[in-house]
Amino acid sequence: LDEFHKATNEFSNAILEILEFCPEHVYFILCTTEPQKVIATIRGQRAQRFSVERLPKQVMIGFLKRITKKEDVELPDNFYQEIAEVADGSPRAALNILDKIIDIEDDEEAFNAISSANFDEMEVKKLIDYLMSQGKKSWKEVSKIVKNLDLTGSKPEEIRVAIARYFGTVLLNRGDPWSHRVMAMFASEPWFYTGREKLLDTLWELCK
């Protein structure tokens, strides 16, 4: 059951007995990015919790090499390194990038496509530029930019990673509190299931 934190209390209470007395061969998998919102009688007594972590870089590289081997495709080693770096532990993001570059014959063009994978929309760059600008941020201005963003599928997660990486670099070079605040708010758990709403919530907090 996906996004189980959105289940109503009535539904959650209704399945308590089903979860407790289900047949031995039946397993219920309750998926959520916000486990604290699952009622305590399920979370603490009737379920075992497994956290899904980001893949380490070397594991991601091995994963990508298995994919390209099955597809009978050869890529330079630095391509795998760069995809793993840009994907930031997300197999889905890594596969999306691989799909975009796998048929590009020119190595330089393909590598540049990997490096810019999270900046493939001008509106994302506009959002970063606005967050970098001086002074208090205006929700009115932020919302104008966000309305032009593609927030379907895994796009919000790609935007999150792009902004976190960008401001992480700025923090290393400048060491200013604002860059740290932005980086910290975007360097969170993946947003695959709450992407659009989580992006809006994070930007709203930055405008306060």
Automatic annotation (TrEMBL):
Q: Which InterPro entries does UniProt cross-reference here?
A: DNA_Rep/Repair_Clamp_Loader, P-loop_NTPase
A Gene Ontology BP annotation from the UniProt entry: DNA-templated DNA replication
Cited SUPFAM superfamilies = P-loop containing nucleoside triphosphate hydrolases (SSF52540)
Q: Which PANTHER family match?
A: PROTEIN STICHEL-LIKE 2, REPLICATION FACTOR C / DNA POLYMERASE III GAMMA-TAU SUBUNIT
The name on file for this protein is Putative DNA polymerase
Origin species, per record, is: viral metagenome
